[in-house]
Design goal:
Order of helices and strands: HHHHHHHHHHHHHHHHHHHHHHHH
Oligomer: single chain
Structural class: mainly alpha
Number of helices: 24
Distance between the termini: 53 Å
Largest sheet: none
Strand content: under 5%
Helix content: over 70%
Radius of gyration: 22 Å
């Protein structure tokens, strides 16, 4: 079963069960169990050993994963601190004076998400913690908030030259100028660009469809869920300062991990250091530094007593337990899929079919990247599999088609990651919005699939015209036209 179609069965079963049963923990574990059985040849002891020793323990002992978990816990603690100090409440009052409508609250969420382009994990949790009180006040469903967060996380990071995603893509392009290729691929990243167009079109037209419409038609009052134990001394400063500190120190942490502060020959420039950075290390160091600065600032300003600050540590950890549990299971499932040779199986399919239809290859790569990222829950893993294959196929034959295909790989990986219930960013978007994870997945998929369908057509066009502007104009017109059509159709139905 290793290196064959069977290698993709565990994640497919897990995702299917999750969507059917609406229960993510058991669905992920069943997928893990199937992967363990396939790998061990249905041996009882072999299955148990592979699942726990090679799966769970290996995932939780991986230094990158541990760094992300530390970042999650620290960020949860900072959110608890900002809420307890009254910073979030004060910002909510300020926003109430300046943001007057439901549409304004959603636009502000998207703009903040676009501004926090450094890293998708950071984006998901920060935007959620800052904007949730405001969107709650104007009756924006948390499922819609989760969609807006998720759509301004990976899609923004993948078109931002200074981001952890740019660093990851650059690292996968061997034998070429990775950063230059990344910059040239941005105009062809149709899924990311169209996702932004779609978000603004949906918000400004006040349109919802599919499962999202059912949720939005159900009015809900989130005011009852607000924490009544917050302090009254907090001001907007007590939210803005910790967030600004977090951003600055996370950037410093990332360039530190990339060698910006090294000496001699190891020292690198800002862009080069960012390209070589380790997001896990950078975010972990930056968040811990920001937490220490925030605690000291709150003590100096006397907005929180020391014992209440310490009480926020376990409170922040508890808030992140669901996300940590899902992440651990998702990482373990990815380990099962990797051990079964799913990467090699997909790579073989792409290489065998590459020669006969070169101009259609960007669209084909886009579809394969969607499926692979959806099944494995990882964009970066998809980059690692497909980008080296694309470079090998096109590097000496058609450089422009190589750029389009690399961009199609990145776009497809982001799309699959966007839709997958076992994706890190999907999980963290649910955590940031504090909504039921599978409700977020089910409401987001129709939106993402509509954009994916339009992106697929534009990649077919781009493969022949080899120009980003014509496909972009056609795709943008299709999105806006589709929104207008659905809006009129709903108006007639009423």
């Amino acid at each position: 079963m290793i290196g064959t179609f069977w290698s993709l069965i565990p994640p497919v079963v897990a995702i299917t069960l999750a969507l059917i049963t609406k229960e993510v923990y058991s669905s992920l574990f069943i997928g893990i169990l199937i992967g363990g059985l396939f790998y061990s040849g249905f041996s009882f002891t072999g299955t148990i050993t592979h699942i726990f020793q090679d799966g769970v323990v290996k995932s939780l002992s991986d230094s990158y994963n541990v760094g992300i978990l530390v970042f999650l816990v620290v960020l949860g603690t900072m959110v608890a601190l900002m809420n307890k100090a009254g910073g979030s409440a004060a910002f909510g009052k300020w926003a109430k004076e300046h943001i007057k409508t439901k549409i304004g609250a959603q636009v502000a969420t998207v703009v903040l998400g676009i501004l926090i382009f450094i890293d998708d994990y950071f984006n998901c949790l920060t935007v959620g913690s800052v904007m949730r009180p405001i969107t709650d006040r104007y009756g924006v469903r948390r499922e819609k908030l989760a969609y807006l967060i998720d759509s301004t996380a990976a899609p923004i990071c993948i078109i931002a030259p200074v981001s952890s995603w740019a660093a990851a893509v650059t690292g996968f392009v061997e034998g070429e100028d990775g950063f230059n290729l990344f910059l040239r691929a941005i105009p062809y990243n149709f899924y990311a660009l169209f996702t932004i167009v779609a978000m603004f079109s949906l918000i400004l037209s006040d349109l919802s469809f599919g499962p999202m419409k059912k949720f939005e038609d159900e009015k809900i009052n989130y005011a009852e869920e607000e924490d009544k134990t917050i302090e009254t001394k907090g001001t907007v400063f007590d939210l803005v300062f910790p967030i600004a500190t977090l951003i600055i120190l996370c950037v410093i942490g990332m360039i530190y991990s990339g060698g910006f502060f090294a000496s001699g020959e190891d020292k690198k420039g800002f862009v080069e250091a960012f390209s070589a950075s380790d997001a896990s290390v950078g975010l972990m160091l930056g968040s811990i530094g920001a937490l220490i600065v925030t605690i000291i600032t709150y003590l100096i300003r006397r907005v929180l007593k020391f014992e209440k600050i310490m009480a926020c540590l376990p409170e922040g950890f508890k808030a992140m337990v669901p996300a940590i549990l899902i992440l651990t299971l998702a990482w373990t499932l990815k380990g099962m899929t990797d051990s079964l040779g799913a990467k090699e199986f997909v790579a073989g399919i792409v290489q065998s079919g590459a020669g006969s239809f070169m101009s259609l290859l960007p669209a084909l790569v886009f579809v394969i990247a969607i499926f692979l990222a959806f099944a494995t829950g990882t964009s970066w893993g998809t980059f690692g599999i497909l980008i080296p294959i694309v470079v090998a196929i096109f590097s000496n034959t058609d450089p422009e088609l190589m750029i389009i295909s690399i961009s199609a790989c990145m776009a497809g990986a982001v799309c699959g990651d966007h839709c997958s219930p076992i994706s890190d960013t999907t999980i963290m978007s649910s955590a940031g919005a504090q909504c039921v994870h599978l409700d977020h997945v089910s409401t987001q998929i129709p939106y993402a699939m509509c954009v994916a369908g339009i992106s697929f057509v534009t990649y077919i066009i781009a493969g022949f015209v080899k120009n980003p502007f014509v496909p972009f104009i056609i795709g943008t017109a299709a999105i806006i036209g589709g929104v207008i059509f659905l809006k009129k159709r709903q108006a007639v139905a009423k």
